[in-house]
Amino acid sequence: MENKAAKKDPSKIIIIILGILILAVVAGGAFFGYNTFLKDKKSITKSTVQQVVNNGQTTGTVANSLDQVVSSQTFQLDEITVNLADEGGNRYLKVAVYLGFDNKKLTSELTTKKPIVTDAVIQILRTKKVADITAKNMNNIKLEIIQKINPMLEKGQLNNVYFTDIIIQ
């Protein structure tokens, strides 16, 4: 009778060890899968936007990543109306612009430099034609604005530009 009990004990231990090993492999695979496939898509970091701005890359998925950046702070510029660069000069663009950033200290600097920042946005928008103001090209315009304004700032950097109202006539 003792032989039967001795034979069952090692087999139970082997089954328990195999179960633990299988559980560890599944958990390791889930961890690897999350870090490889899901983590990168869910979190676009500020450094990614900074790399885009510094390198001037405005095409492909890098420009599309700007849509995924959500700023913790925004600063509203006055409504901007500019003539577009189309021939005849009879087309204009009216936009409401918000600048996105994460550093709270930047709000006071943007308030102080609001006329300078607004002028920079106007300079960029005046060079655009009606054909340039498309949904596909808006990220390029946003990055151009960020690249123009960030060198002017000392207390932080912009990480996005938001257009809440766009009217072309």
Please sum up the structure shown.
The protein has 169 residues and is α+β, with helices and mostly antiparallel strands. The protein has helices at 2-42, 46-55, 60-64, 106-112, 114-126, 138-149; strands spanning 73-76, 80-83, 92-101, 158-168. The chain has a domain at 69-168: 2-Layer Sandwich (Tetrahydropterin Synthase, Chain A), CATH 3.30.479.
Report on the structure:
The protein is α+β, with helices and mostly antiparallel strands and 169 residues long. The protein has a domain at 69-168: Band 7 domain (Tetrahydropterin Synthase, Chain A, 2-Layer Sandwich), CATH 3.30.479.30. Helix content is 52%, strand content 17%. It has six helices and four strands, in the order αααβββαααβ. Helix 5 packs across helix 6. It is elongated. Mean pLDDT is 82; it is low at 40-46 and 57-63.
Q: What is the terminal separation in angstroms? A: 96 Å
CA gyration radius, whole angstroms = 27 Å
- Under the CATH scheme, the architecture of the domain at 69-168 is 2-Layer Sandwich
Helicity level: 40-55%
Strand content: 15-25%
What's the count of strands?
4
List SSEs in N-to-C order: HHHEEEHHHE
